[in-house]
Design goal:
Blueprint lengths: L12 E4 L2 E9 L2 E6 L5 E5 H5 L5 E4 L19 H19 L21 H14 L6 H14 L7 H4 L10 H13 L8 H16 L9 H14 L32 E7 L4 E2 L5 E2 L2 E7 L5 E7 L5 H10 L23 H7 L16 E4 L8 H9 L3 E4 L9 H13 L19 H4 L4 H16 L4 E5 L7 E2 L1 H12 L8 H6 L3 E4 L6 E3 L2 E4 L17 E5 L6 E6 L2 E7 L11 H10 L6 H21 L4 H12 L58 H6 L2
Parallel strand pairs: 6-11, 11-12
Antiparallel strand pairs: 1-2, 1-5, 2-3, 3-4, 6-9, 7-8, 9-10, 13-14, 15-18, 16-17, 17-20, 18-19, 19-20
Helix pairs in contact: 3-4, 6-7, 6-8, 9-11, 18-19
């Protein structure tokens, strides 16, 4: 069948613009022309070529050849790649027609004459020619290139690896990229943490979306590079890791601090925690962490959270906490118990009955405690408590944080492995802080203390430490619990029982007189039947008695009488319906102006204190504080995940305030405005206690 006029196909020789060209490709309205007298390539509109005055088809391609579709131009490729594709085009045309380029009017080269050699022979000749030139081309390769040329034109002769659209993220799993992008988007405007936290969050997201183990998180180095690429490509703020301020490093010690026995050297210090908690008044503030770390085992022997402004009693009671086992919480899983750990539980229980039902945290008696020059640790209360417990205190030189580097490193581990996963995280510095950190705070101080205690047991005590080596197997790295178990077998364990009197001895003391109305200090009056017979009868030169008090239980105090300790209670205890601390009392004193006599002013302070605690508990305050107070009371907020837990569990704290059996407030008399005692006076706030010394004494 004769081809219709004006129809051209790939491979035709045409005359155009005074020269002879080969139609190398067609792409819609465009065509590609290769000049026979050179290697020049032109891309023109097909209408421009067909409308030229000297246009003519000199010889058509073979009948039956299908039209070639070009899927992309070569202009965007590098020059070597483009030249190689055009060279293959000339080789293929020579195999099929026997002519190529300016040799069209010349006889075919030997081995390529279609009239003498078959197509298979010409393909073999081309393969031998290219192999002799050093390209290692087989006959199968020549056939494959011919097929690709007929299907895609010159574009099919380009190396497929060079045509492939390269992703900005390389060969990364698109699901991992999508998860990283989502996590980065969610943390915009919030406090940023480390890349390790982001990697955990991506792993949790992939696990929730695709199932456990379905999508693997890349290794750490690969993941960090991928995160930076995603952040740069999507214009998202990256984590603030690496942007921390570089403080000047102090001169290191000449030799590292070494301890070979548990309790031989214990380091203590305090620092502000990088997280917001909901305080008693409903306001969000950063708490202060006081921690003790045993150098020999790297164990966190005690850790206490308090409102900003740690008191001497906190550090003193922290010493006592290292001497007693930590009891298991009712909602803690069984694997947190000492019986389920590597600690020699059976042997220890036979020596120390207090280990029964204890959590997997070492009980270490400090021999020497290393402290800094903070006023809390050099206070008379702390030094007296250390002397009472038989502990030597070793102060560090001023501005020498490296001298207690173990506890400083412990603070860093708490921030990296625990704090940055808690709702209300503030970041390590101002540049990393989110825009609404106060609104994210949802944990009260006792609830955060419970989370911290659980993390220390399963997240720190069970974490292998590179510097902990078995005494008999130096190549074996150990966890703090394993190290304590190994050293206890050598050094032994001596229980140190504490009774109620020991606990009272650790509290701050002052000298007060016992008057007719009772004991008065800090605008509070304490009285009780035990004081009868001792009023105005002190034999001391100053006429006063030794009084101990707990700043976290200011509704009672203890007086050292000739026959032992006697407890006296605040006379207005029944007016306050919720537990409070000395910090809240001082706040009330600063806001209430005295207008009456001393007794009426104290009663007025008690009523204002009760009013503040009611507002914080019920949420009837300003918008921000009421929202946080109700959140703290309902305990609705849950941080995304918690480090160290062996399984993911959502927690719901008690909706009642501490020591409130029903969570209801006592009724208020409408006439007098006082609260009735039907609900009973508030008991001690166990949320603030490290341990109950009286209950501790009952075990012995």
């Amino acid at each position: 069948m004769k081809r219709p006029a004006g129809v051209v196909e790939v491979g035709d020789r045409i005359r155009f613009d005074g020269g002879i060209h080969v139609l190398a490709g067609l792409d819609g309205p465009r065509c590609r022309l290769v000049a026979e007298e050179g290697t020049g390539v032109q891309v023109l509109l097909l209408t421009q070529v067909l409308g030229a005055q000297d246009f003519a088809v000199l010889d058509a391609s073979r009948p039956g050849r299908s039209r070639v579709l070009v899927h992309g131009p070569l202009d965007g490729l590098d020059a070597p790649v483009r030249e190689k594709a055009l060279a293959w085009e000339r080789h293929i045309l020579e195999v099929e027609t026997g002519h190529v380029g300016s040799r069209r009017d010349w006889p075919p080269r030997p081995g390529y004459d279609p009239a003498v050699y078959g197509l298979a022979e010409r393909e073999a000749a081309k393969a031998a020619e290219l192999t002799a030139a050093g390209e290692q081309v087989s006959v199968a390769t020549v056939r494959r290139m011919r097929a690709r040329y007929h299907e895609q034109g010159v574009w099919g002769l380009v190396d497929g690896r060079l045509k492939r659209e390269r992703s900005a993220f390389g060969r990364a799993d698109p699901r991992v990229v999508a998860a990283i992008k989502r996590v980065l988007e969610e943390q915009q405007g919030r406090s940023t943490g480390t890349l390790s936290r982001l990697r955990r969050q991506v792993g949790w997201l992939l696990e929730d979306a695709h199932g456990p183990g379905a999508v693997a998180v890349p290794p750490v180095a690969t993941f960090n590079r991928l995160v930076r690429s995603v952040a740069e490509q999507e214009q998202l703020a990256l984590t603030a890791a690496g942007q921390r301020r570089r403080a000047s490093r102090p001169e290191p010690v000449f030799t590292p601090t070494v301890a070979t026995l548990p309790g031989e050297l214990v380091m203590m210090d305090s620092t502000l925690l990088d997280v917001m908690v909901v305080c008693e008044d409903g306001q969000a503030r950063r708490p202060e962490l006081t921690m003790a770390v045993d150098v020999a085992t790297r164990s966190v022997t005690a850790a206490v959270l308090r409102p900003k402004g740690t008191k001497a009693v906190d550090a003193a009671v922290l010493l006592a906490q290292t001497l007693v086992p930590q009891p298991m919480r009712p909602d803690w899983p069984e694997y947190l118990s000492m019986a389920a750990s590597v600690i020699p539980y059976t042997r220890l229980v036979s020596i120390d009955a207090r280990m029964q039902g204890a959590a997997a945290r070492p009980v270490i008696r400090p021999s020497t405690v290393v402290i800094d020059q903070g006023k809390v640790f050099v206070s008379r209360c702390f030094l007296t408590a250390a002397e009472h417990l038989g502990i030597t205190v070793q102060p560090c030189p001023p501005a020498s944080g490296h001298a207690k580097g173990h506890v400083e490193r412990g603070f860093g581990a708490v921030g990296t492995l625990f704090t940055q996963y808690v709702a209300g995280y503030t970041g390590t510095h101002l540049a990393a802080r989110g825009s609404s950190v106060e609104d994210e705070a949802c944990w009260t101080l006792p609830q955060l203390q419970d989370l911290l205690d659980e993390w220390i047991i399963c997240g720190w005590q069970e974490r292998r430490h590179e510097r902990l080596r078995h005494p008999l197997m130096p190549r074996l790295t150990l966890t703090p619990n394993e190290m304590w178990a190994a050293l206890t077998g050598i050094a032994g364990h001596v229980p140190v029982p504490l009774n109620g009197a020991d606990w009272i001895e650790l509290l701050p003391s002052r000298r007060c007189a016992i008057a007719d109305e009772g004991i008065r200090f800090e605008h509070r009056t304490y009285d009780g039947p035990a004081l009868n017979g001792h009023r105005h009868l002190s034999t001391a030169p100053d006429g006063k008695w030794e009084v101990h008090h707990n700043p976290y239980e200011p509704w009672r105090c203890w007086v050292r009488l000739p026959d032992g300790w006697a407890q006296a209670e605040w006379i207005h205890r029944g007016l306050v319906s919720q537990p409070f601390t000395d910090t809240t009392w001082r706040h009330i004193r600063s806001t209430v102006t005295r207008r009456t006599d001393r007794a009426e002013h104290e009663e007025h302070l008690a009523r204002r204190l009760d009013e503040l605690l009611r507002r914080a508990h019920t949420g009837h305050a300003d918008a921000k504080s009421s929202s946080r107070a109700s959140t703290a009371a309902d305990s609705a907020g849950v941080p995304g995940r918690r480090v160290g837990a062996k399984r993911t569990r959502r927690r719901k704290a008690d909706t009642d305030m501490p020591d409130s059996p029903t969570g209801q407030l006592p009724p208020v008399d409408e006439d007098t405005g006082t609260t009735s005692n039907t609900a009973g006076a508030p008991s001690s706030a166990r949320a603030w206690n490290i341990f109950d010394a009286h209950q501790e004494a009952q075990q012995w």
